[in-house]
């Protein structure tokens, strides 16, 4: 009975470890995200979902369908169609009919959109460097590798 | 000149390291969050902001003001007043006038809200254990400590 009890105590301690870890991870991510949201608003008068959408398009010069865009966006709080409409009205992105399937279209950056994103991205990268300066380069490498391992587990199990 | 150049190359490599780390951190957090959102919807017909709000109240049995609630919520996508109204209508939370300041009120869990949250929380904790099983207990401890260090840096610098 005492062995059972130990096992249960250990299992429960492990459970709490995972939960505590997740809450800490979430609180750090939220804190960084909040800072980025705040600074994007102050410096560029824009939002994180808008920035995130431009970033995805910058990584895919051939354009993305609305569905692909939705799947790739990493932050919540934005309506993909609504944001795309706004960015199109501002001349930063454009919708193009796909030659092989005239019913669907892809979204791409315009040259103006690319220029504006690059300007914001350079500043954004500086903020990230500053916010993560609490870790040494060696610690950053360590966390990066640990996250690779977690990502693989999540890929295989979700 | 070659020393300057090396310094610049190194700085740029470090910049990219921080950015890559942040993107990986964000993608892991988003993946876990998406899973939790999906499972909360399927299993309990509820949303992550609702669950998060109940969780904050469970941690503060004396109740929280709306302002304190907003500050403590860790996930986005919810309107605190709107969610509180819904949960109050369902009898899971209640608003109480504070004796010392009749203009403001605090939000608390009702006994029914506490029971419902506890049932969801136990299942939720199991999901978190499963999603983070990609790390050994020793690795979880390691990440937990590294995050503590990052959190301190963020606290001092934001």
Automatic annotation (TrEMBL), chains A, B:
PANTHER family: HTH-TYPE TRANSCRIPTIONAL REPRESSOR YETL, TRANSCRIPTIONAL REGULATOR, MARR FAMILY. Keywords: DNA-binding, Transcription, Transcription regulation. This is MarR family transcriptional regulator. One of its GO terms (molecular function) is DNA-binding transcription factor activity. The keyword DNA-binding applies. Residues 18-152 form the HTH marR-type domain. InterPro entries: HTH_MarR-typ, MarR/SlyA-like, Tscrpt_reg_MarR-type_CS, WH-like_DNA-bd_sf, WH_DNA-bd_sf. GO terms for biological process: response to stress.
């Amino acid at each position: 009975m005492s062995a059972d009890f130990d096992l249960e105590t250990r299992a429960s301690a492990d459970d709490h470890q995972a939960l505590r870890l997740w809450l800490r991870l979430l609180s750090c991510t939220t804190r960084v995200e909040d800072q980025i949201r705040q600074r994007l608003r102050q410096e560029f008068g824009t939002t994180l979902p808008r920035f995130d959408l431009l970033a995805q398009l910058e990584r895919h010069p051939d354009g993305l369908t609305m569905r692909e865009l939705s799947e790739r966006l990493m932050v919540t709080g934005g309506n993909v169609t609504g944001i795309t409409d706004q960015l199109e009205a501002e001349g930063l992105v454009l919708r193009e009919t796909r030659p092989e399937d005239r019913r669907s279209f892809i979204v791409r950056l315009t040259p103006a959109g690319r220029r504006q994103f690059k300007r914001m991205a350079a500043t954004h990268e500086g903020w990230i460097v500053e916010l993560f300066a609490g870790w040494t380069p060696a610690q950053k490498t360590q966390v990066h590798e640990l996250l690779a391992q977690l990502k693989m587990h999540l890929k295989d199990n979700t």
